[in-house]
Amino acid sequence: MADPSQSLYAFQSIARVFCGPRQPERKLRSASAWMLVAAAGSGAVFAEGRRYTLASGGALTGGPGSIVLQAEDRAEGEWKLYFVEFVPIRLTFPSPERLSAKVEEGGSPWTGCRFASDANELGTLAERLHTAVHMNLDSPQHGLNAHVLVQQMVLWWLGEAEESGGRQRTTDTAVLAALRDMESRLGEPWTREQLAAKAGIAPAYFSVYCRKLTGLSPSVYLERLRVHRAAELLLQNRDRKGDMADIARRSGFRDAWYMSRRFRNMQGAGPTSYRRDFVPERVATLEYPYTNHLLALGVKPAAARFGGAGEAIRPGDREGIAEIPALLSEEGRKQLLLRHEPQLVVTYGSEPLRDGMRSVAPVVHLPWLPMNWREHMQAFGRLLRREAEAAERIAALDRQAETIRDQAHRLFPPETTISLFKIENKRCYLYGIRDMGCIFYEFLGYSPHPYMRRCLEQDTRLHSVEISLRQMADYAGDLNFVVLYPDEGGQGDFLRANEHWRDFEVKAGRAIAYMDYREWLHYDPLNFALQLEKVVPLLEQQSQWILTI
Fold first, then answer.
1. Where are the beta strands (DSSP E) in 104-165?
2. 26 bridge partner residues
3. Could you tell me which residue ranges the HTH araC/xylS-type domain spans (predicted)?
4. What's this model's pTM, rounded to 2 decimal places?
């Protein structure tokens, strides 16, 4: 077997995979090396004859073969994973004058499963890789970025193997690892001596390195984390009363009285008045949909992620906002936020991501898939004391949709069945109520295919369902809209040569419209307003094509 450290690794594909009550088991198959990185929830992975329990922050990698996923802890909601496929490229040295590389054939150097329970860095890299592949397709460095990120992920695994094999960590790495452990378990009674023992150095040296890496002593750093955690709980539950003891316990303080003293020293106000009166003026968002939600409320974030081409933000709206680059590392994001001093960070990112950012400011988590866009707007309204603005924005979109709905129904009656598909990485998805599904089903009142209608009856927030290309013909509607990504990886040739795709085209006839992912795969108020403006011309075009049949 070849030595994995003597190979480069090229990106092949990445997909977000979900398991939950509606679809508790998923079957995957890979002809190349792969990684599974758990971003939320937990479940069991069956691969290469073994069973692995994979929870948020964990990762598993293996060679070609079949993988079965089974969600376990359904109380936590969906189990979300990133499934990454990559190809080893063997470096060879046939002569001193020539260096060459070739894709490994036959026995892959990446054989046997490797498991890691503490792989938060891989989670961050997987998120960046998914963004690079699916959100930054217009970037001239799009392909190179994907390959570089896969290489970084493989290097993480190789470094993990070296550590488990006895290679000594650097002191900086050891201290950071101890601090990350503390960040994720604020309820434990941490002491400097415990942290130093974890890092393998003397307590006095741990204090020196902690100041070097964070600018704070271990005790002050821990207190800051706990106060910020308390602030998160206060802001997310503004209307509650009498729960200070519970907030103190969940933040790691020994009692409500002590929490109140430490909170007042750091935030300048006691917990009760902070919950009642504090309105953050400097907010940062780590994901672009939430940037758009803030702008829809008339709030300019201090620092924010922006989407790619085709989004609804005008160039002038970006002025005065520090952009968080999509591919910036977690530490890079943290340093950028520290420079711009937000009073609050909002994200739908994983718990390890939130733990890592909490030293900057309180980090409020607004779940993405479990909430619909109306609930997102209402949550932002409560958080920023802009409830009236949130209600008006929702009402304005409903008024716009009502006008567009009347025009659309004159072209196609409301009983028209519309099926929404997306082809991505040679996989097919039938859309539910999210993204373009919100436009056609929620705003315009059209009917999905009976199969999707049954799925939505079971899960009213359903994003999409993965189906086979063979099933596309079975789920075709009176009208069919298909989102295609740019022709990466020979997707066009793959579809043209696929008999199931041809069956779908024959059955759907001319009732197929191809849509630009940059315009239709969004789920926020700003993009909804633009999408509603484009619906009638799209339906008029379909109506004209059908009349010519």
1. 114-116
2. 69
3. 176-277
4. 0.82
